[in-house]
Amino acid sequence: MIPLFALLGVVVGALINQLASDLPARRELTNPHCPYCGRDRPWWQWLALPVMLVRQDRCPHCDAPIGLRHALTELGLATLYVYLWLEIGPSINLPIYLVYSAIFALVVITDVERRLILNVVTYPAIVFGVIAAYVRPNMTLWSALLGGLIGFFAFYLMALVGHVLFGSGALGGGDVKLAAFVGLVVGFPLVIEALVLTILIGAGFSVILLILRLRSLDDYVPYGPFIVAGAMVTLLWGYPIARWFLS
Asked: How far apart are CA 70 and CA 17, in angstroms?
């Protein structure tokens, strides 16, 4: 089963890569194509990771390389999917967590590359989160809805404060809706842990960038990846972390 889930992660990663290219451009899903010459890749280049491993990752028409992001996304989801299979096993949670992971990967890519967390991603994700709350063990609809409300209003307040202190680029509506989705995913009370982890991860990463002089206080740093990191850590290890902290 491990090779099967690794392959599934690579295939889903390829789909996420294409969505991350097409959705911000407001176009329907296209075949994988070269961003330089615009021509479709041959079918054997639709998955970036295998062709990079055999060094056949250049466009046959213009010789431009396939972006490293494509292979990293496929590798990351393959690794995560295998981990989820080993950690969760054949459970109703498994397909739900696989979908969560794909959504989070898409959000990270579009936020890092385009500074966009798209409504076309977050709105269906929120609907999926509500539906998943019905069937997930150890999760109730009320817990999910309360978590979603807390996530939404916490980040809405942070966005208002950030707008006053730092201007319009601090936090956007996409971050607020993503936080609402995270609240639905982890539920109450774990949404509190997810929010705290998000702030700590974001602050720590920003301080490192400042110390290394890779960013200044005036530079934009996308917050979506920090929200996703806090969500995934909480989703996978939330209760053990809470017990360790309270012990």
From this structure: 6
pTM, 2 dp: 0.93
Locate tokens 């407001």: which residue? 26
Residue 70 confidence (pLDDT): 94
Across 29-50, b (16+ Cβ under 10 Å) vs e yields eeebbbeeeeeebeeebbbbbe
Distance CA 32, CA 44 (A): 11
- pLDDT tens digits for 49-75? 999 888 888 888 898 888 899 999 999
Residue 216 has pLDDT above 70, yes or no: no
| Residues 65 and 5 sit within 8 Å (Cβ to Cβ) | no
Distance CA 102, CA 235 (A): 14
Predicted pLDDT of residue 231: 96
- Residues 35, 215, 111, 70, CA torsion sign: positive
Q: Which residue has the higher pLDDT, 227 or 216?
A: 227
Give me the phi and psi of 119, to 5 degrees please: -60, -35
Both tokens of 58, joined, read 């250049």
What single-letter amino acid sits at 82?
V
Distance between first and last Cα of the chain: 37
Residues in CB range of 43: below 8 A, 6 or more apart: none
**With bands split at pLDDT 50, 70 and 90, how would you rate the model's confidence at 217?**
low
Where does residue 172 fall: left (phi above 0), alpha (psi -120 to 50 degrees), or beta otherwise?
Answer: beta
Instruction: Extract the tokens encoding 182.
Output: 């995270």
